[in-house]
Amino acid sequence: MLVLGCRDQPPLPPPDPPPPPAPAAPTPAGGRFIASYGVASPLYRQLRQSLMASRLLDTLVTGLNDTIRVRENVVLAATECGEPNAYYRPEARRVSLCYELLDQLTRRYSRAEGSDLLIAGTFAFVLLHELGHAMVHLLDLPITGREEDAADQFATLLMLREGAVGDSLAFAVATMFAQQAESVAFEDLAFADEHGLDLQRVYNILCWIHGRAPERYPEVVREGWLTEGRAERCPAEFNRIRASWRRLLAPHLKVRSDSGPIPYP
Ligand SMILES: [Zn+2]
User: Fold this and answer.
1) What is the Å distance from ligand 1's center to 22 Cα?
2) What tens digit of pLDDT does each residue of 220-230 get?
3) Are 237 and 228 in contact (CB under 8 A)?
């Protein structure tokens, strides 16, 4: 089973006492986002080289450092973990992307139609999802509802900022979750998980793609991927999610334009 992050991460520390009612002051600068490519055993050395050549982490870190103020250094690390996973560890302020996850994705999708998109989309989504958790912790953002859903929102919003390529990656993520939903035996305890069910994540991502520009991909509704009722409300849902994330991040931005670099959703 493809594990998409967070399942075994330590719980977040207890919440701080409620903040005073005064408007939030800008976060003092002082920290930086740092990309790291950890040592890999021979099995994953080629993957490490490919990942470094893609400059995925470096590009994201540059965008983050141009955009977000953080108090302390935060590491985005590709690393060998002993399992195909990804997680954010708040005590270390570290997002870990496991070489084993990239290896698993490559093995799973290398012969699938649209394999490059499936691999790149899933890996990027996992990275951005964990970055969403990091933002909630580092910036002490108030989140009601499930943080896992908020992290999915954050990841999808950032993908959909990247034009047609980002749209294709987001569709690939929905495809990945749909395939995973077909391949995983359903258990009652799935309802107890902090993540949405795979099919719920499919429909959420498609709703946000549709809600961002309903005229752009009419096949989402025409082919029955969304109910009429949900589809009608997706534009409002998307706009509310985007406005909420913008408002939450606003006190921590170095740039204030919504046309700024990633990761401003
Ligand atoms: Zn998560």
Assistant:
1) 30
2) 999 999 999 99
3) no
